[in-house]
Task: structure prediction
Amino acid sequence: MDERDPATLSASAVLASPDEPGERMRLSGRVFAVDGITPVPGVVIYAHHTNIDGLYANGTAESEWSRRNGRLRGWVKTDAEGRYAFDTIKPAPYPDLTGPAHVHLYVKESGRQTYYIDDVVFEGEFKVDATFRAAQEFRGGSGIVRLGTDSDGVLTAVRDIRLEPHPV
Result:
C-alpha cells in the first residue's frame, strides 16, 4: 500500500493495458462506513490479480510486491461519494485449479493499518459453489459478484465494500 502516495491517486485506475490479452472488465463499487450506509471518501484500495493464464506474471524490479503480484495491479482512492473503479481484464483461476478466478483487494483507511477483504469472485463460475459460500468470511462484505456487460461489451463487476469496525 505504501508504494504510492495517496495524494497522487484518483478514484479510477487502469490495471490492464489495451493490448493485454483477455476479456475487458471494469470492477467498480463504493466504500461505506461500518453502518453500510455512509459513503467514505479517501480510502485507498489496492487490487491485483492473475492474467488469462492464471499467473501473477511480469512484475517489475520496482518492489517485492511488484515481483510477487505481477503487472496487473494498482491503487485507487475513493472519491467524495466513496466510488472507485479498476479497468482491467477478467482474471483466470490458478493453473492448478485450486480456487476460482479472483481479484485480491486490500483497504487502507486514514490512520488505520492496511487489511485485506474477501476476494472478488464471480457468481456461477468455477468453484464458486455452496462450499465456497459457506466458507466466506464477509471481510468487507461478500466478495461474490455477478458479471454484467455494458453497452461496449465490457464485463462489469460491482463490489461494494463495508469497512471493518476498529477499536476506539
Q: What stands out?
A: Residues 64-69 form the longest helix (6 residues). The helical segments are 64-69, 130-135. The two ends are 23 Å apart (CA to CA).
